[in-house]
Every structure is written in structure tokens, then in C-alpha cells.
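Encoded backbone
================
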Amino acid sequence: MDYPHRRYNQLTGEWVLVSPHRTKRPWQGREERSRNDKIPSYDPSCYLCPGNERANKERNPQYTNTYVFTNDFAALFPDIPKESSDDHLFTFETVKGICRVLCFSPRHDLTLPEMELHGIVEVIKTWIEQYIDLGSMYRWVQIFENKGEIMGCSNPHPHGQVWAVDELPNEPQKEKRQQVEYYRKFKSPLLSDYRDRELVKQERIVLENDHWIVMVPYWAMWPFETLLVPRMNVQRLSDLSEGEIHSLADILKRHLSKYDNVFKVSFPYTMGWHNAPCDDEDYGYWILHAHFYPPLLRSATIKKFMVGYEMLAESQRDITAEQAAETLRKVSEIHYKLTIPG
């Protein structure tokens, strides 16, 4: 379709305006070397590196794999009084939670796609451990990574975060509502049916392996937004078998290498897992999935901003999901740094 149209996001119940006539190509071939290609493997001034002192004067251990600690500047606290207001105009409620930082490895210079598969497996297993631990205390566990300065990441040492809260936040609340409504109507999980249709169409699939699929969703809002879903109808990372964990490490490395290869830079993004909530409800309608939201548009320095019409009306994109998927399919799965001489 070459004229303006709106696409419905089945997971959130919101619309996105697509304007494919504004551009026929996702970018004009611009590639720019990252200024941070020569990051050291250890930085004595980095508060995430092994053995270094953090802002609260605690010292990191000499960790050799993944390392998790409670955020020194946490946005949530586990012990606060339960308070709320019934004022219909000034409504509030206190929220309990915890924020943790997860260093992927002791290496200051290795992002996920540059790590060996066994290291990525350790990251995934740590995600699972954190989900189980925090899920025993809180209703929602948000595992995520902000990669790159452009995404507000304050430290280049590759790391993610895990926040847990006692209430269901806005985005998972939307997804829960949509998935429940779909399941009641069609008697099958929304993302299961959507995944199967995309596999038939093969228009927006970027990568596949035995257990996982990466696609640009039909309703994608960000230029190279992707959705990672399992072939299995599982609800949580903790449901995964050993083989499925290793398969996940494989597709993460390949997928994130493709991202970096689009513009030959360490591709910034926000990514996060949406596991089923941690309560006693039956979540047979929920399918585990991960969202990747990268802001880069046509080069390493051109970012898509959500402004104007998008802030005041609804999201809009020029590059179609199909164009973005084709671009990602075409780039190599071998990280560009491995092909640079020397």
C-alpha cells in the first residue's frame, strides 16, 4: 500500500499512522563509524566494572560472569507505607518495588551481540533467576536494557535493569486487556495466532531458528522496531528448557548483530521482556515476548523523535514495517567489527 493508512496495534489497542509515500527507501546508505569503537575492556573510573567503587562507596566484587546489585539510585523502594487518595481529581496510590542493575559481563567493551554465546546464556539465566526471585514478591517484573547514550544510558558498560512493582504498569495493563479480549473472542492466544500468520506471510520476518522468531510487527511504531516471540506457547522466561535458552542466546546474538550492522555502529535501543504477571491468575492467553525499540532512522545520527502530531494525536512512521524488515534481513549476521582488518 503506497498511500497513507493506519495500522492497529493488537497488543495495545492503539493505532499508528503509516505514510509510505514520504520515502521509498529506509536510508541512503549512510554508514558512520562509532566514536566509541575503541572502548577499553576495563575502565578504572567506571562504577560498573569489577572491583571499582560505586557512588554509594560500596565496592563491586571481582565478578567474572553476570553481576546483579540493587540500584544505588533506585526509583522504587520496598518498604513504604500504603497510602492512597479517593479524591476524583487528585488521585494517587503509593507503590512498592525494587530496582536492580544487571551487568552482562565484567568486560566494559562487550555489548550483547559481541559476547560469546555462553556469556549470553549466562545473561538469560540471570534474567530467569531475577524473574523468579522478584516474582515471588511483586506482581510485575520488568527486565529491560537501555543501550546507548541516545537512549539515556548513563554508563557505557553493557548492562540492563530489573524493576519489580506490586501493581501492573500501564503498558502490560494494555497488553493484558487486549489479550484477554482476543482470547475470549477467538479461544486462542493473540500472539500465538499473530505469530503463525506472520510465519505464513513471511513479509516481516527477520530471523528464525528452532525455537524463536524475530519480526518487525505489522503495527511497528519505531523505524526498526522488532518483536521477539517463541514458537512455543510459553508465558514466562522461567518456562524455558535448556535447549530453548541456548536457542534464545543464538537468535539474540544474530539479531543484535544485524542491528549494529545497519549503520555500522553500536545500535541504540530500549528492549524489554513482557512475561506474564506474577499472581494467581490463569495466564493461558499470554505469550512471552520481548520488544525492541531503536530510535535510529536513516543514519547513525538521525533519530526519530516523537513530536508534534505524534505527541498530540498518534504515532506516525514513513518507513513501512515491510521495508524495515527487508533492510534487517539483508544485513549480515556477522558483527561488523569482526570484518574490520586489525
Remarks:
- Helices lie at 117-135, 170-186, 190-201, 242-263, 309-312, 321-330.
- The CA atoms of residues 113 and 258 lie 9 Å apart.
- Confidence is low (pLDDT under 50) at residues 25-29.
